[in-house]
Amino acid sequence: MDGKFEELRGEWALILGGSSGFGQATAIELARHGVNVFGVHLDRRATLPNVDRITAEIRGHDVEAQFFNVNAADHDRRRETIDRIEQILTGRDHRRIRIFLHSLAFGALKPLVGTTADESLSSSQIEMTLDVMASSLVYWVQDLAWRELIGSGSRIFAMTSAGDQRCWPGYGAVSAAKAALEAYIRQLALELAPRGATANAIRAGVTDTPALRKIPGHEIMIENVLRRNPAGRMTTPDDVARAIAMLSLSSAQWISGNVIGVDGGEEIVG
């Protein structure tokens, strides 16, 4: 383990969306630095072996891994999960969540105004996308803060994307959710500063994840970024995970309320 990360050893991370993509990579990266991991994921039986593989890899770094297969946007399941987390942390030397990552990627991918009503986003689809991909961040942070599970030194991260400003066919509801997510991060940074906690959004470059492959026309997005990115490659989940680990150090305490690009300069190129 890199000595500069020694301060993280024994701390706890809570990762929403911990079984794939950015959440999976961050869980493993933090485990490498001695961080114990709570993971929240929603997997069917067919994909549970992958969750077992991830938890085994995390534990292979001599840390604890507790994963919960629940819908993170369900209010009752959220409270039950935090109840369990609180029980596990009771009496521990490290009782608080040092790193909280919101990496939920589940939303409706349809036009706002399609040819017919059936081909267009419904109000329930828009509301669901905003709830899962944005507002759930607030509800989790509220419950954690009220129970004093986040506080001095805690780091809150939420995954955003270039869709916060750029448009793509069928991405309207997700784009709105990303914009809302960033607004929530700014407000959380303001309100949690007296507690000594920080909040930042991480805007990853285009990354080949399961979530990307659900976007209509993602193949074109990949081709475009390979031409545009100054480094000549796509962002990887590991790129993002390493950035989150660095931003979790005490030396990053004064970085809060920002949208931080982790993209190799992708967004500076027109």
Structure description:
- The protein is α/β, with parallel strands linked by helices and 270 residues long.
- Helices cover 39% and strands 14% of the residues.
- The protein has a single domain (3-263), classed as NAD(P)-binding Rossmann-like Domain (Rossmann fold).
- It has helices spanning 21-32, 48-59, 75-89, 123-146, 172-192, 218-228, 237-247, and strands spanning 12-16, 36-41, 65-69, 97-102, 155-160, 198-204, 259-262.
- It has a seven-stranded parallel beta sheet with strand order 3-2-1-4-5-6-7, with helices on both faces.
- Helix 1 links the parallel strand 1 (12-16) and strand 2.
- It starts with 11 loop residues before the first strand and ends in an 8-residue tail after the last strand.
- The model has no long low-confidence stretch (mean pLDDT 94).
Q: List how many beta strands DSSP finds.
A: 7
The top level CATH class name = Alpha Beta
Provide the helix percentage: 25-40%
Give the overall shape.
globular
Please state the second-level CATH architecture: 3-Layer(aba) Sandwich
pLDDT averaged residue by residue: 94
Write down the oligomeric state: single chain
Helix and strand pattern: EHEHEHEHEHEHHE
Largest beta-sheet details = 7 strands, parallel
- Please, how many helices? 7
Question: Are there runs of 5+ residues with pLDDT below 50, and where?
Answer: none
Integer-rounded radius of gyration: 18 Å
CATH superfamily: NAD(P)-binding Rossmann-like Domain
Strand content: 5-15%
Head-to-tail CA distance between termini: 38 Å
CATH topology (fold) name: Rossmann fold
Strand line-up in the sheet with most strands: 3-2-1-4-5-6-7
Q: How many structural domains in the coordinates?
A: 1
